[in-house]
Structure formats: C-alpha cells, structure tokens
Model the fold of this input.
Amino acid sequence: MKRRIYILLHLFILTVFNSYSQDAHYSQFYANPLYLNPAFAGTVNCPRFTLNFRDQWPAFKNNFLSFSAGYDQHISDLHGGIGVLVSGNIVGGGIFQSYNAGVIYNFRIQAAHQFYLQFALQASYLYNSINWNKLHFASEILDPTLPSDLPLEQNPNLVKSQFDATFGFVAYTPYLYFGFAMHHLLPIQITYLKTSSNKFKTLWEPKWTGHIGGKIAIVQKMRGENNFGDIYLHPNIIFISQGKFHYLHEGFYFNFYPFTLGAWVRHNFKNLDAVIISCGVEYKLIRVGYSYDFNLTKLEKSGGAHEVSLQFIIPCDPDRTSKSSRKSKFKAPPVDCPLF
Done:
C-alpha cells in the first residue's frame, strides 16, 4: 500500500503542469510610481529616488518579501523622462527568487491647454532562480531509498532569465490624472525542469493596470506650491488584472500638509480582500510612508502586510535641463498626484 501511494503521488508530481506567476502587489501605489506605470517617469521633473519594501503575511514562516528601487527625471532635450527600476521577490526563505531590472523612456506632449500626455516604453531583464536542495518531494517523505527522476545534483540552483517589455501612458491636468499600463508584452515562459517524464514551468501572463484620480483643494494658501496647513483630498480608483486575478482598489488620500492619511478597499468581483490604511510625512524633499493591509479573507490570521516607502527628490531648475533657451511644448508642470 505504501508503494502504491508513492507511485500515485510521484505520477501526479511528474505530470506536465504549469504554474502561473503573479507580480508582487504593492499597496502604496503612488510611492512606487514606476512600478505602477512606467509613464510616471519624469513626472516630477526633478531627479527622484524611490525605495519600497513589502513584508506580506509575516505570521507565516518563509513568507513573501518584495522590494523595489527606482530613479527617474525629466530631460527637456529628450522631450520626456527617463527612469530605471529594479525590483525583486523572495519566496519560501529563498527557494524561489525573481528579479527585474528595467530602463524607461517617456515621451511627453501637450495635447491642449493644461492637458499633457506621456507615453512610455520599458525594456526589462528578468532573472529567476529556484533552489532544488530546499524543496522536499513526496518520494523523500514516503521512502527516501526510492530513486528520483529529478536532476537535483546536476542543478541545485537553477537560474533562468528572459527579456520583457512594458507599455504605459499617463494623461493629466492640474486637477485630474489617469493612465493605463500593460506589463509583460513579451510572452514569458520559464522551464525549470524538463526530463523524459516531467516538465515544471512558470508562466507570467500580461498584467493590465488602469488608474484614475483627482485633486480637490480644500485649503490652499498659494497656488503652485504647498504650505503648512494646506488641505487636499485625492480620490482614486485603480484596477489591476493579471490572468485569473482581478482587483479593484477604491480609496482616497487626505493631505494636511505635510501629513498624509490614506484609506483603501481592495476587492475582486466576488468578495472583499483587504482594507489598506496608510500614513506619510513629507519634510522638504524627503517623503516617508507606511501602510498596513488588513486581510478580510480566510487569511486574516496571516499578519496582513507591512509596507514602507522612501522618496527623495533632488532640487533642480527644470529649464536648465535643456540646452535650448526657447520655450518648448515638452515642458510641463509635474503631475499633481498623491505621493503615497
């Protein structure tokens, strides 16, 4: 009987099957702008650095850890912005690791008075690895003496890489902004294991992101700049779809400069998934944010998710980024969207 159970489990494991990967999900959308949409590159005009870290389901051992680092700025002579984004995910205490490094070019045009469009293309390089030595299979549990078809000794740390591409656009006015991005334009299929009897591969399906938001000035002492005591409300809607996963985010940011509070609800078309609470503070050119996801599903005892963000903007004169002194239709005020 023991051997029959082993054979059934072994056949199941060695059956040809696919796993579908889902991109890491960050809750501080606008604190990680290049990850949300590459068309945000250069939208603050001056050079900007961003750092983000997410600890998801900390109550579980070997949970999901995600991080990203970005840089972007507007360059008038290039008629748009440039950016660099590096992100990574560590799953199962390092069993699975994935990293993504990309460069972004953003083209800006003025479509009408105080209405601007930015179109971006991102080229990325994906790096994925799996450590077979940290995995335990049914054959090891039922009978460690039985032979295995898995080439563990030959590939203890299997590494796969591939190129990827992303497209996005952002449109904005002084009080309204919206955009769309499509990640994984190139088909991504990474085969980790392939023998005469089995195949284990991971697929990244295209990810669609649509977002829209606005700015409502309740108290504003001076137009064009923020002062202590200014009050703004930023309502937002963000929709993200990847494969069978569809999430709608509805929420707002309340900004009492220099402090910001945010509240979001994340759900699919059937049930609620989480409530997100965030807070942030801005001091001169440094912004620090924190958010927590309260799970509303059966994973409510998972510990939710902690997320921390850091932004730093280098002071600059946008006009000096161009060698030409003439006014250009490619110059524009920065996108006035939330910072967290």
